[in-house]
Amino acid sequence: MIWLAPAATVIALASAAPAPSALVAGASSTPPASEAPAITRVLGASVTPGEVTYGGAVTVAGRLTDANQGMSGAEVVLQADAYPFHGFAALARAATAADGGFTFTGVRPDRNTRLRVVLEGSPTTTSAQLSVTVDPSVAINARSLGPGRTRLSIRLGHTVHAGSASASASWFVAARGTRVFRLAAVTQTRELSPGLTYASATINPPSKRFVYRVCLNPAWEHAMGPPATHGRCPRRDYEVRRDVG
Amino acid sequence: MWAERFRRGRPLMLVACAGLAGWGPASAVALEYGGEGRGIPVVPYPSADAIAAASRYLDGRAGRTSFAVVNSLGQLSGVRLREHFETASVVKVMMLVAYLQMLSAQHRGLDAADTSLLYPMIHVSDNNAASAVTAIVGGAAVARVARESGMSDYAPGVGWWAYTQTSAADQARLFFALERLVPRRFYAYARGLLSGIEPSQSWGVPPVGRPRWQVFFKTGALPEQGLFNEVARLERPRLTFTIAVFTDGDPSMSYGEQTIEGVAATLLARSP
What we know:
The structure holds two protein chains of two kinds.
Chain A: E1 9-10, E2 41-48, E3 51-53, E4 58-66, E5 69-70, E6 75-82, E7 89-95, E8 101-107, E9 113-119, E10 122-126, E11 130-135, E12 137-146, E13 149-157, E14 168-175, E15 180-188, E16 190-193, E17 196-203, E18 209-216, E19 238-239
Parallel strand pairs in A: 3-11
Antiparallel strand pairs in A: 1-8, 2-4, 4-5, 4-8, 6-7, 6-9, 9-10, 9-11, 12-13, 13-17, 14-15, 14-18, 15-19, 16-17
Chain B: E1 7-8, E2 31-38, H1 48-59, E3 64-70, E4 76-79, E5 85-86, H2 92-105, H3 112-123, H4 127-137, H5 139-148, E6 165-166, H6 168-176, H7 178-181, H8 184-195, H9 205-209, E7 214-222, E8 227-236, E9 239-248, H10 253-267
Antiparallel strand pairs in B: 3-4, 3-9, 5-6, 7-8, 8-9
């Protein structure tokens, strides 16, 4: 697992208020009345933001309670399971504050990652699983080189997981105000350095002002971004519902 | 002119169009980024319409035919682009390039011995000179020219260099790449040879293209099998494109020449 930052620093939360959706009961639950004593530990946690650009950091915060009372001084462990999700491993530790709150800051996943917080010594007391979607960082550019020649380029920062195999980049262009994107070029990507991919194409612009798109299916595609963006690139011209530009 | 300098990209939703795309469901989404750009659009020459018209013309001619155009933007199109034909004397341009590359590699200039082979090989399509050039440069050098020009259908001739296999696409690419392939110090010499071919062998493209265009070309023929070929590079200021026309099984030489001339006339019907 690769993280872009050292283990998370820990800051006690004065008023830990995890997002409701992230709250989840821990392993312990209220036993039948005939059994004694009732112990109800809850380890709630949330991650902010849930989607981050490659290189960005997220914060995991939450609160550990027992019978609705904050548990102070307990050690909680932030665990991570990065794509392809083969299992959790400890990432950072923190002690809970007086109100049971805890925070892990500066967590920098390099690819889609599941997080959870576990109470040290009580592996069944765990938070809900928190998903972090990591999008590649993107810079795109269009530069006119003269009549009939405009260079389009893209640079992508991405995980080094899944290798550095070259991929096809399909470049589509449409005159402003039109709906059909024409396939203008298909080029190969190249890795400028580990985790930094570049592709370019020189095209004849369809009009003085135009809109372009570049589509890729890189090897690391499934390790990053929402699953909904993992479809195959079109191989031919296509139409969009609204006029572009 | 910079358009949008490294504008931040955003994933975009792709929507397939039944009439255009033929891929994936309408909800398909891929890793795609977009932006806006500015540029100066150029209409390529010859136009797609002219190429289509030339294709129709060629389909009406007898024999086995193909033609390829690399237009002014470097885009390849044509008919039966990769169909194999024997080069006949068209291969002599590859020999010329290989020979000039050899001289450059040896840091030599052209001397009388060199020109006594190259000039007749191109000017009057002298076969003995071509055989001598082949013996000097070797088959590997010609094959290297094929690779460097991006040929995909080249195969050396069996028994005689005139039986070298090629396609219209290969030869159109070669002529488009001449400026890159011929060592700079010899480029003017090569252009002089290819634009000054003996009038009796200047059929097909030159009579149609001149004087509006500078025409650099080479014809080839194996008359006994009705094979007549021509590859040409046409230039005007800031405008260059290439044509390769291959025919086989023509009823006569004049018929083959007319076929090539007809293709050229159709392509050049509208001036840029």
